[in-house]
Prior knowledge:
Aminopeptidase
Amino acid sequence: MEIMYAKPVHKKDLQHLHQQAFGVANSKEKGAVIGELVKSLLADPTAEPRLSLIAVEQNTVAGHILFTRVHIEGVSGNIVAQILAPLAVHPDF
Protein backbone atom coordinates (compact mmCIF):
# COMPACT_ATOMS: atom_id res chain seq x y z
CA MET A 1 0.00 0.00 0.00
CA GLU A 2 1.29 3.45 -0.91
CA ILE A 3 0.41 6.68 0.90
CA MET A 4 0.53 9.84 -1.23
CA TYR A 5 -0.83 13.33 -1.53
CA ALA A 6 -4.19 13.43 -3.28
CA LYS A 7 -4.07 15.31 -6.57
CA PRO A 8 -6.80 16.97 -8.63
CA VAL A 9 -6.86 13.86 -10.84
CA HIS A 10 -8.12 11.88 -7.80
CA LYS A 11 -11.24 14.02 -7.15
CA LYS A 12 -13.72 11.57 -8.71
CA ASP A 13 -12.03 8.62 -6.99
CA LEU A 14 -12.28 10.43 -3.64
CA GLN A 15 -15.94 11.23 -4.07
CA HIS A 16 -16.65 7.62 -5.05
CA LEU A 17 -14.59 6.29 -2.13
CA HIS A 18 -16.54 8.34 0.42
CA GLN A 19 -19.84 7.37 -1.20
CA GLN A 20 -18.88 3.70 -0.88
CA ALA A 21 -17.47 3.95 2.65
CA PHE A 22 -20.34 5.92 4.15
CA GLY A 23 -23.04 4.39 1.96
CA VAL A 24 -22.21 0.88 3.14
CA ALA A 25 -21.94 1.93 6.80
CA ASN A 26 -25.09 4.07 6.85
CA SER A 27 -27.17 4.61 3.75
CA LYS A 28 -26.58 5.47 0.12
CA GLU A 29 -27.96 8.95 0.80
CA LYS A 30 -25.39 9.60 3.53
CA GLY A 31 -22.62 8.35 1.26
CA ALA A 32 -23.70 10.83 -1.41
CA VAL A 33 -23.79 13.68 1.14
CA ILE A 34 -20.27 12.88 2.40
CA GLY A 35 -19.01 12.58 -1.18
CA GLU A 36 -20.36 16.06 -1.92
CA LEU A 37 -18.83 17.39 1.33
CA VAL A 38 -15.39 16.17 0.23
CA LYS A 39 -15.87 17.75 -3.19
CA SER A 40 -16.87 21.06 -1.55
CA LEU A 41 -14.01 21.06 0.97
CA LEU A 42 -11.45 20.42 -1.75
CA ALA A 43 -12.77 23.42 -3.69
CA ASP A 44 -13.20 25.77 -0.69
CA PRO A 45 -10.38 28.32 -0.40
CA THR A 46 -11.28 29.01 3.26
CA ALA A 47 -10.38 25.37 4.08
CA GLU A 48 -6.74 25.99 3.12
CA PRO A 49 -4.19 24.97 4.05
CA ARG A 50 -5.40 21.43 3.47
CA LEU A 51 -3.74 18.07 3.81
CA SER A 52 -5.37 15.43 1.66
CA LEU A 53 -3.72 11.98 1.70
CA ILE A 54 -4.77 8.80 -0.06
CA ALA A 55 -3.85 5.16 0.40
CA VAL A 56 -3.52 3.31 -2.91
CA GLU A 57 -3.52 -0.46 -3.21
CA GLN A 58 -3.31 -2.15 -6.63
CA ASN A 59 -4.20 1.10 -8.46
CA THR A 60 -7.31 1.55 -6.28
CA VAL A 61 -7.84 4.43 -3.85
CA ALA A 62 -8.45 2.40 -0.69
CA GLY A 63 -8.45 5.19 1.88
CA HIS A 64 -8.49 8.96 2.31
CA ILE A 65 -7.94 11.49 5.08
CA LEU A 66 -8.61 15.19 4.80
CA PHE A 67 -7.36 17.85 7.21
CA THR A 68 -8.88 21.28 6.67
CA ARG A 69 -8.57 24.63 8.40
CA VAL A 70 -11.35 25.63 10.75
CA HIS A 71 -12.06 28.80 12.72
CA ILE A 72 -13.50 28.33 16.21
CA GLU A 73 -15.15 31.40 17.63
CA GLY A 74 -15.47 31.65 21.38
CA VAL A 75 -15.40 33.94 24.35
CA SER A 76 -11.62 34.31 24.19
CA GLY A 77 -11.57 35.11 20.47
CA ASN A 78 -11.04 33.28 17.24
CA ILE A 79 -8.92 30.11 17.24
CA VAL A 80 -7.55 28.70 13.99
CA ALA A 81 -7.10 24.93 13.99
CA GLN A 82 -7.04 21.89 11.72
CA ILE A 83 -9.83 19.33 11.71
CA LEU A 84 -9.65 15.74 10.47
CA ALA A 85 -12.86 15.05 8.63
CA PRO A 86 -13.88 13.12 6.79
CA LEU A 87 -11.83 9.95 6.87
CA ALA A 88 -12.79 6.96 4.73
CA VAL A 89 -11.69 3.41 4.02
CA HIS A 90 -13.17 1.49 1.10
CA PRO A 91 -15.36 -1.40 2.34
CA ASP A 92 -13.26 -3.94 0.41
CA PHE A 93 -10.24 -3.06 2.55
